[in-house]
Design a protein that fits this description.
It is a single chain. The chain contains 13 helices and 11 strands. The protein has helices at about 1-70, 85-90, 130-145, 175-180, 185, 190-210, 265-270, 275-290, 295-305, 305-315, 335-345, 360-365, 385-395, and strands at about 100, 105-110, 120-125, 155-160, 160-170, 215, 225, 235, 240-245, 250, 270-275. The relative contact order is 0.11.
Length: about 425
């Protein structure tokens, strides 16, 4: 009985074993299929992402290579191409200690070359609104311009992702640091201010009439006038400058660039610029040098009118002495100061036709025999709120830049929008 029971149990186990074994593969395959599908989907998605990444990387590199190739013709000019390693060594790899300031183009660094020569390096920022076109524009223009009142470009570097401009180093930095800073009382006496005004005028005259090219700067302001060790002024920042053809008198553009407070009204409101636009900016700068005050948003908020309106009002009421910087006290030649004042008002007249040329301005400044016409009233600008709405409606794209060490002409609002650039 025991033997038969054992055989019966063994037979049952043998009968059920194949059934159990045969059911395992089906169960296993049914569980494994979703896992395999999931893995396959992940692999496909990752492959697609990788392909997109490679495509974008190649496209980005192609654009960079094209930009660099566009820069190559510059090597045929008189401007030397400098290698990145020497600039890195000169600026200590663009260390914070060597940073002079920040502009619309990008940061500016002080450097010392192997021979001991000091340089200033402008480094194109990746976030800069001024791209390769502006970089090339500045290089090609300044490489062809040589004047004692224009900043000297020593070289450039286009290597890897870097775009660098190398200038002569000017130890006194920009005019606005003296004019609107705490050092003006000790340094900017009348003779120095007069010399700066005349130097800027001669630099603009060279750009407009005496150089091989007819150039409109379009962004003349206190922070774009640099001072050398003898306080001689040098006009800088030609990224927004434009070359005029021989027969061109004015150009109409929908893309307005410059700094609020310095832009001529016809340029700010209609996009029309000419050499007379620079004359207007020069006039504003002259009045700032005389008064020691900035024609900007702060002045507008405090006085409810612009600096040039104040200048006109005091001139018209025969109270010109009240406009002159109090730090000068009475230590200035009245006739010379009044001639600069008069010339500045002639430059900021609303109609471009009424403004003098820069050759006429230089003559006014150097000759005490020149008969100056009576200036017309400068433009009356709208209130900030109205001006802002008008500018937004006109959809002007204002590309401007800050400069140096936060003593720059930012928020110089007297003509167009109230936002900083």
């Amino acid at each position: 009985m025991v033997g038969s029971a054992y055989r019966l149990r063994h037979r049952r186990l043998m009968d059920t074993a194949p059934a159990t074994a045969s059911s395992d593969p089906g169960h296993s395959s049914s569980n494994g299929m979703p896992i395999m599908v999931s893995i396959l989907v992940v692999v496909i998605i990752c492959t697609l992402f990788y392909c997109v990444y490679c495509w974008r990387w190649r496209k980005r590199n192609a654009v960079r290579r094209a930009q660099i190739q566009n820069m190559r013709p510059m090597s045929s000019s008189d401007l030397p191409l400098m290698d990145l390693s020497s600039i890195n060594a000169a600026t200590n790899s663009f260390s914070k200690e060597n940073k002079l300031g920040e502009g619309g183009f990008g940061p500016v660094y002080r450097g010392v070359l192997d021979g001991g020569a000091e340089i200033a390096v402008k480094r194109l920022s990746a976030r800069s609104r001024q791209g390769a076109a502006e970089f090339r524009n500045e290089v090609e223009l300044i490489a062809k311009l040589q004047h004692r009142n224009l900043v000297r470009l020593l070289g450039c570097c286009v290597e890897k992702d870097e775009k660098l401009l190398v200038y002569e180093y000017l130890p006194n930095k920009s005019l606005d640091a003296f004019l609107f800073g705490t050092r003006k009382t000790a340094h900017l006496d009348w003779k120095m201010r007069q010399s700066i005004i005349l130097g800027i005028a001669r630099g603009l005259l060279y750009l407009h009439e005496d150089s091989s090219l007819k150039i409109v700067h379009r962004d003349l302001k206190a922070s774009n006038v640099l001072l050398d060790n003898k306080m001689n002024p040098k006009i800088s920042d030609f990224g927004m400058a434009k070359i005029f053809e021989d027969e061109e008198i004015e150009v109409n553009t929908g893309h307005v660039v410059g700094t609020y407070g310095y832009m001529a009204p016809e340029y700010a409101m209609e996009g029309v610029f000419s050499v007379k636009s620079d004359v207007y900016s020069f006039g504003v700068l002259v009045l700032e040098i005389l008064s020691g005050q900035r024609n900007g948003a702060m002045y507008l908020q405090e006085h409810n009118h612009t600096l040039i309106q104040d200048a006109w009002k005091l001139w018209d009421e025969d109270k010109a002495a009240e406009f002159v910087d109090a730090s000068l006290a009475a230590s200035y030649a009245k006739d010379e100061a009044w001639r600069c004042y008069h010339a500045g008002l002639l430059c900021v007249q609303e109609s471009p036709e009424l403004r003098p040329t820069m050759s006429g301005v230089v003559l006014m400044l150097i000759s005490d025999q020149a008969q100056l016409p009576a200036p017309a009233q400068p433009p009356l600008f709208a209130s900030p709120r109205t001006t802002k709405r008008a500018t937004q409606a006109s959809e002007f794209s204002l590309g401007t830049g800050t400069d140096t060490t936060k003593t720059q002409s930012v928020n110089d609002v007297s003509i167009t929008m109230i936002e900083p650039r």
